[in-house]
Design goal:
Layout: E1 4-6, H1 9-12, E2 20-22, H2 27-49, H3 60-90, E3 92-95, E4 103-106
Antiparallel strand pairs: 1-2, 3-4
Region (Disordered): 87-107
């Protein structure tokens, strides 16, 4: 069974968590989603920057879209970071030998 985790507060658009991702997903699809979202924001900003100077544009909607998309990416990066931190803790072994300094290693 999947472990669904809520996206960041900025992604929700509501006080209740309604948008989730599969916390059991492999790293690669999560990273692919992060990269896709970041690239889409970059392309949107590049397109806006290349508009002729005489084009009038309200930047507020684009700012809101950027915040939502980057918040999604941020949520996924936090999940990957938490996963990595837990993985390191799980594999850390501490050895104590009498009359010697404590040693740690990761497996």
């Amino acid at each position: 069974m999947s472990d669904f985790k809520p996206l960041n507060t900025y992604s929700q658009g509501h006080a209740l968590n309604v948008l989730f991702f599969d916390g059991d997903a492999e790293n690669e699809p999560l990273i692919d989603n992060v990269l896709s979202r970041i690239k889409s924001v970059m392309l949107m900003h590049e397109a806006i920057a290349s508009l002729p100077p005489d084009v009038s544009l309200d930047g507020v909607p684009f700012s809101e879209i950027s915040t939502l998309i980057l918040s999604d990416a941020y949520s996924l990066l936090l999940a990957l970071n938490d996963r990595e931190a837990k993985n390191k803790q799980r594999h850390e072994i501490t050895v104590t030998v009498p009359d010697k300094q404590e040693e740690s290693s990761r497996v």
